[in-house]
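Duplicate of #3305? Posting structure anyway:
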């Protein structure tokens, strides 16, 4: 039985940016996860987005498959993804829908959208949500820069000048029949910079703070009304020489239908990620060689989706 975990709380609206940066640093060192409150995304918009997401996932499978993922955008059916390539699972018990970057005019047209006749409010709702999440994400990255003793516009100049930003809508079925032993999302760390997660309150999310220890110890992440759950990704861990955790997490079935929305804010594909000078020394040299963001992300996607060759999200 997993223990209940109460993550640190970060207030994005706090005027004391230094104190907030210190809180973020402690949360990233200890957990790699934290709650984000007063993020500026309206409750009504979030509610509308969940309603529109549910409407899409209740459409017939044949229609959803007509929007199957291309260029890392569109529909992904049940069991088509395995976030833990080392497992023997038949796939993760979830379906999802990817919407790519709206800022990049060269790639925005790659997005796929459900029929306006079927879902007239779907596209404007999701576009509004993405813009608001991007705004919140950029504010948060400014505070993360301060938490690392960097200029507050460091990421704005290096990783957010042309970010790879994706919204992923997720649906976990309540009943899985003979596949109850499957994970909704198998054990993994996120690949990129940061993730902002919104859930509908149904439990299932768990984290494992010590990802290299066996047996793994899993803790349930409690729902906090109105708060986002933020976690650090692998690229941020590489930047900080593992000072900030890219924490292992999963979603387990609870017998209840579950919806969530994950917003991934990652660097552009040509951004070189290498250890910050402040995070390494002679006694603690860099653990990872420099790598282009796009190269790292594409390799992780290849492992997740097998031999597919359509993963070009790094072109954003």
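Output from current build:
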């Amino acid at each position: 039985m997993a223990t209940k975990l109460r993550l640190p709380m970060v207030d994005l609206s706090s005027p004391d940016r230094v104190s907030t940066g210190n809180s973020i640093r402690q949360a990233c060192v200890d957990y790699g996860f934290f709650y984000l409150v007063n993020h500026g995304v309206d409750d009504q918009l979030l509610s509308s987005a969940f309603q529109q997401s549910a409407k899409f996932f209740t459409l017939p499978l044949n229609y959803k498959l007509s929007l199957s993922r291309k260029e890392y955008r569109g529909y992904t059916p049940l069991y088509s993804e395995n976030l833990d390539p080392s497992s023997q699972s038949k796939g993760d018990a979830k379906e999802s829908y990817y919407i790519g970057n709206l800022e990049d005019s060269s790639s925005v047209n790659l997005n796929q959208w459900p029929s306006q006749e079927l879902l007239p409010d779907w596209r404007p709702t999701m576009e509004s949500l993405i813009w608001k999440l991007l705004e919140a994400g950029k504010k948060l990255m400014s505070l993360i820069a301060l938490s690392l003793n960097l200029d507050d516009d460091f990421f704005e100049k290096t990783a957010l000048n042309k970010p790879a930003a994706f919204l992923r809508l997720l649906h976990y079925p309540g009943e899985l029949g003979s596949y109850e032993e499957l994970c909704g999302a198998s054990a993994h760390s996120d690949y990129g910079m940061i993730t902002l997660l919104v859930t509908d309150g149904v439990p299932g999310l768990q984290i494992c703070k010590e990802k290299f220890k066996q047996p793994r110890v899993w803790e349930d992440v409690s729902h906090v009304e109105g708060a986002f759950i933020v976690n650090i990704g692998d690229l941020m861990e590489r930047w900080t020489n593992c000072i900030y955790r890219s924490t292992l997490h999963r979603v387990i079935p609870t017998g209840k239908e579950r919806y969530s929305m994950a917003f991934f804010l990652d660097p552009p594909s040509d951004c070189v990620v290498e250890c910050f000078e402040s995070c390494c020394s002679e006694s603690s040299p860099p653990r990872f060689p420099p790598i282009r963001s796009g190269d790292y992300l594409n390799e992780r996607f290849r492992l997740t989706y097998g031999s597919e060759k359509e993963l070009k999200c790094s072109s954003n």
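Confirmed duplicate; merging threads. The chain is about 25% helix and 20% strand. The radius of gyration is 19 Å.
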